[in-house]
């Protein structure tokens, strides 16, 4: 339903990222073996203690069961096992309560969709089961059973073969670097496509060629648009401080 499983494996395999390939494979192999062995032993211990459902499922089930105290159940059809459940106003809950839900035990459905999503009876289903003396735990999906947990981690990892027993490769290949991937000297060329959002907020360039930029002012004639070197009156105005003829 989520990426929790992949994130979990990614978390405990962080130490293998910088290892050589052979060491990385061995590290992953033995990490997975320890993971399976630990879960397998825990499932056996839970089964020997008479526990039917996993701790995760029981935690959600008991949390939903604690909400049914103020639920009001109305039976719509005993033959179809169809019921209506009204919840009271609750300002502390996310939805603030005061909702109406339809429960059908034959179709294993509830209009809140939590039963279908989590495969664990929601508080509305548990309220119906308590009101009409049904076993609510029978509606927990078998995937949450301790037996299913044991079967998930039942496979045993075989011992690795010694490197002397590895088959010889049929051919040897020499891996050469791709010359097209070698980084050239200098600063790499930017491939970013700039737009008006990149230009907004930037300070304007102080050049006479950019619109809105600061214009150059001549030091001889005090006119804008050129400097002392390109001034048209350069030969007319003396630069030594004397008076022109």
Automatic annotation (TrEMBL):
Pfam families: SWIM
SWIM-type domain sequence ranges: 83-133
Domain of life: Eukaryota
Keyword annotations: Metal-binding, Zinc, Zinc-finger
Keyword Ligase: no
Keyword Metal-binding part of the UniProt annotation: yes
Region Disordered, residue ranges: 79-100, 189-213
InterPro entries linked: Znf_CCHC_sf, Znf_PMZ, Znf_SWIM
Gene Ontology MF term list: nucleic acid binding; zinc ion binding
PANTHER family for this protein: MUDR FAMILY TRANSPOSASE, POLYPROTEIN, PUTATIVE-RELATED
Official protein name in the record: SWIM-type domain-containing protein
Lineage: Eukaryota, Viridiplantae, Streptophyta, Embryophyta, Tracheophyta
